Amino acid sequence: MRSMSRPAHLALPLLAAFLAACSPVTLRGSGNQYWLKSSSAVILTTTDSLIAYHAYVRSLSGAEWNRESEQVREAVQKDGSEFQRLRLAMVMAVPLTGPREHARAMQQLEQLERETQKQNSSLHGLIAALKAELAERRRLEDALRDESRRADDLEQKLDALKAIERNLLERSQPPPPPVSKKRR
């Protein structure tokens, strides 16, 4: 009986050590993570935090985006970490920004991809996914623009055909008979 209590006695410190290993990781260079909802689960990794930030940035209105963009640019100037630079790329890549910002975001992502590949960083996969998302969005925007031009061209051709048809109908109708004035 005595031998059973000894393993049970050792199990408690072992369990405490395992639970301590599961505690949240403090993210270096991440600062205040205001984009996390207070009711959300504990963020364990930098990647998890950045995924939450990506969702947060995509939900911002124009004025909110402007404030966030300025705040992130200042953070990049102060810190310059991969974390902050990736946040900046995410801010520049949101759908409400234009092609110039998207091009800058793509450049930032390509530079980060090269750096993280050399360092074997855990952010490499996230960066590659964001880069692929941005490239796909650009491809879809280009396709939409091409289809819109094509639809406009077809609309113009249809209007021209309708005008020709009206013109032909007017020509094929005989002129109305002259109105005779009856004298009473």
Summarize the structure.
By secondary structure, the protein is mainly α.
Written overview of the protein:
The protein is an all-alpha fold. It has a domain of about 110 residues. The protein has 6 helices and no strands. Helix 2 packs parallel to helix 4, helix 4 runs antiparallel to helix 5 and helix 5 packs antiparallel against helix 6. It is elongated. The N terminus is likely disordered. This is Lipoprotein.
What structural category do the secondary elements indicate?
mainly alpha
- Assembly type: single chain
Q: Topology as H/E string? A: HHHHHH
Major sheet summary line: none
Share of helix among residues?
Answer: over 70%
Overall shape: elongated
Q: Which stretches are low in confidence, meaning pLDDT under 50 for 5 or more residues running? A: 3-30
Number of strands: 0
State the separation between the terminal residues, measured CA to CA. Answer: 137 Å
Into which percentage range does the β-strand content fall? under 5%
- Quick check: average pLDDT? 80
Question: Number of helix segments?
Answer: 6
Rg calc: 32 Å
Protein name: Lipoprotein
Name the descriptors.
single chain; 184 residues; mainly alpha; 6 helices; 71% helix; elongated; Lipoprotein
Show the helix and strand layout.
Layout: H1 2-21, H2 46-58, H3 62-78, H4 82-92, H5 99-119, H6 124-172
